[in-house]
Design brief:
Layout lengths: L1 H7 L3 E4 L14 H28 L3 E5 L11 H21 L5 E7 L3 H4 L7 H7 L2 H6 L2 H16 L6 H12 L6 E4 L2 H12 L2 H13 L1
Parallel strand pairs: 1-2, 2-3, 3-4
Helix pairs in contact: 2-3, 5-7
Length: 214
């Protein structure tokens, strides 16, 4: 494969693989954490390392699909964890690739669940049935149902204009001066990111706790 591209040039790589799920920290198995890290984080790293020689040779571009969820979590901490890790990997890679003329860009979409179908609606019954006995002793079905309803309401608010994210990816690949980060999100989502990134953690926790309590 690499020999084939060596003869025709290799100009861009888009790392877009990703899976999502819902669940509080103790509700998820170690196997699930390993699977998410393998697909969302290590999958992108494996692909990047495989094509890095060609990207350096042709001064290409590397685009990574992150998310505003890299800044905060509302019931899907496992997904947030992998996106935050991707952000840090990209920050290191972007600086290291400058001397080779390779540009690294991050796409940070907001809620596009209705466009991507990355996360199906959550079933409280299925979540409850998969909980360990220890977790069932701490939580109850009503709490799980409330959390599932909350998360499903977020999914239902997702934008259907997935072309906005695609446009950002195209710009990252073709613009003479691409951005390091493209945040493609609603104003209220950008405001939440602003609070999480710039305000003290206690403020961020208060805002997110309020959102979770509604």
């Amino acid at each position: 494969l690499l020999r084939h591209f060596s003869s025709i040039g290799f100009w861009g790589l888009v790392n877009n693989a990703g899976i999502s799920t819902f669940g509080e920290t103790g509700w998820l198995s170690m196997e699930k954490y390993e699977k998410f890290a393998d697909v969302n984080l290590l999958g992108s790293i494996r692909t990047t390392l495989a094509f890095l020689p060609l990207l350096r040779k042709y001064k290409g571009r590397i685009v990574f699909m992150s998310s505003i969820i890299a800044y905060f979590s509302l019931g899907n901490g496992i997904y947030s964890m992998t996106k935050a890790a991707i952000e840090k990997f990209c920050d290191a890679l972007r600086l290291e690739m400058k001397k080779f003329g390779v540009q690294v860009c991050i796409i940070q979409p907001g809620n596009y669940a209705r466009s991507t179908k990355i996360q199906p609606p959550v079933s409280a019954e299925e979540i409850w049935n998969e909980l360990s006995e220890e977790e069932k002793a701490v939580y109850n079905k009503e709490y799980v149902q409330e959390r599932a309803n909350f998360f499903n309401s977020i999914l239902s608010e997702g934008s259907t204009n997935g072309n906005e994210v695609v446009d950002a990816m195209v710009d990252a690949l073709t613009s003479p001066a691409p951005k390091a980060r493209y945040m493609v999100a609603k104003l209220k989502e950008k405001a939440l990111v602003f609070v999480c990134a710039l305000f003290p953690t206690v403020v961020m926790d208060s805002v997110l706790s309020y959102a979770l309590s509604k």
